[in-house]
């Protein structure tokens, strides 16, 4: 999508700090990290949010979850980590391109809401 921030990042129209890339997935460092390791993992195809996952596009989501352990290992997250996705208004999703936050490198707070 031409007006999507993360599509522009994937297309290298906007710079980012790359962590991982393959034909279906791009991962890059969050611009405002909330933990020592804060990586955003996105499908290259535009999916607006978790609410837009369906039988036609779920393969790229499955790929994301295949690569998360590889990224976590490469980032040294040997003691665990958190993966979250914010969806829609109540989920406080600010960028409307599906993305998973990989957070770690410290003991994270237990509370989620
Ligand atoms: P969410 O609130 O779940 O939609 O998370 C969006 C995240 O995207 C947020 O943690 C900050 C990050 N972000 C926003 N703009 C940019 C950007 O231009 N570059 C990078 N690397 N991250 C961004």
Would you kindly provide a written description of the structure presented here, covering whatever features stand out?
- With about 110 residues, the chain is α+β, with helices and mostly antiparallel strands.
- It is built from two helices and five strands.
- It has helices at about 5-10, 60-75; strands at about 20, 25-30, 35-45, 80-85, 100-105.
- Strands 1-2-3-5-4 form a five-stranded antiparallel sheet, with helices on one face.
- Strand 2 and strand 3 form a beta hairpin.
Quick overview of this protein structure:
With 113 residues, this protein is an alpha+beta fold.
What is the strand and helix layout of this fold?
Blueprint: H1 5-10, E1 18-21, E2 25-29, E3 37-43, H2 58-74, E4 81-84, E5 100-104
Antiparallel strand pairs: 1-2, 2-3, 3-5, 4-5
The structure holds 2'-deoxyguanosine-5'-monophosphate (DGP).
Residues 5, 14, 16, 28-32, 40, 86, 92-95 line the site of 2'-deoxyguanosine-5'-monophosphate (DGP).
